[in-house]
Amino acid sequence: MKHSNDRILTTHAGSLPRPQGLRQLMWDQLEGKAVDGAALDSQVRAAVKEIVEKQQQIGIDVISDGEMGKIGFSNYVFQHYTGFAEEAPFRAADLADFPDLAMKLVSGGLHHVVLRTLEGPIAPRDPEWVHAEIEDFKAALNGADPDDAFIPAVTPGQVTFNFPNRYYPSHEAYLEAAATALRPEYKAIVDAGFNLQLDSPDVAMARHCFIEGTDLNDPQRHVEASIDYLNGALADLPPEKLRFHICWGNYGGPHHKDIELREIIEPLLELQVAFISVEGANPRHEHEWRVWQELALPDDKMLIAGVIDTKTNHVEHPQLVAERLERFAGVVGKERVIAGTDCGFETFVGANSCDPGVAWLKLEALVDGAALASESLW
Question: 239 CB contacts (<8 Å, ≥6 apart)?
């Protein structure tokens, strides 16, 4: 992925608001209703084209396909991989303290979020599925360099966190199988010239969230093993094409039981990726830019700093965005900071904490704030 020595570049965390027509088709599909496959594919292609043009018009430097073809950043696996069966409920310790809030969130967009148990071997249903996603994105780019774009994919750690194991003899055996299954997806994305974003909220979320029936009972060992198996799956891919995203859950809870970044970041520095994307805008984690004062960012890594909160409808002032970027730049170096968002804007189809229209205003603020920071820093 490109970086700059004369200005702060901009990107985001992947998912963007889907058009209502596409959203409805995906809801119908999730609910087991008859859906015209050709109509769905056509809507996805149109949505990718529209979303690419919007990002280019705003001036985002490294764009995505908005995850238009996925029902969710992680549960897309049961669209394309075998082994998934019964639904499994999600639980969060911070929401357990506020049951009325939890019900409000579920009655909003989260009731369409579906997680499942794994009850058979995990493997691609059709090894070619990812190539269709890639071709839709390439067509929408209309000749633009795919190195100015990225495609997100879930990590083995997130799969084993999100989808309880009822098949493999151990959690680590499940991790190994997930890494093997996902490796062709990773390779196809990079081979096509795109950057690959590896989505792994489990690193932080496994400390305060769980899915009923999970065999993940040692979060620290889970993280360590996840990194080992992920590095194995990435072994033949160039680190400069790889970015790794963590967050504490893109839901509108109090997050008062989130683990501190300092307690989880060190093992991630062993990842064979050049870019690490972390939250840095929301009120629970904005202060954690100071982590980099005591823990040096390795020379072979850059920081995608979250400077836009994706869970609120407040549009950040560009000057505030610039100040956040300047703080990060003052610690890790201005050439090693890329402006990003805390998470995606529609991580699961229809689940928006932030209004879709407001999301685009926030991305405009991101671009404007990065320009202000660049003027100040250079």
Answer: 272, 273, 274, 300
Task: Write down all domains in the chain, each with its CATH number in brackets.
Answer: 9-377 (3.20.20.210)
How far apart, in whole angstroms, are the C-alpha atoms of residue 169 and residue 171? 7
CA distance 16 to 9: 19
Mean pLDDT, the chain, integer: 95
DSSP 348: B
Please tell me the pTM assigned to this model. Answer: 0.96
Max Cα distance, the chain (Å):
56
User: Strand order in 302-306's β-sheet?
Assistant: 9-10, 337-340, 302-306, 275-278, 242-245, 195-199, 150-154
Kindly provide the residue ranges of all beta strands, DSSP E only, lying in 219-323, ordered along the sequence.
242-245, 275-278, 302-306
The count of other CB atoms within 10 Å of the CB of residue 299 is 6
CB atoms closer than 10 angstroms to residue 107? 9
Q: What pLDDT, in 10s, does the model give residues 193-224?
A: 999 999 999 999 999 999 999 999 999 999 99
Tokens of 112: 């369409």
Q: How far apart are CA 28 and CA 157, in angstroms?
A: 29
| Beta strand pairing call for 337-340 and 302-306 | parallel
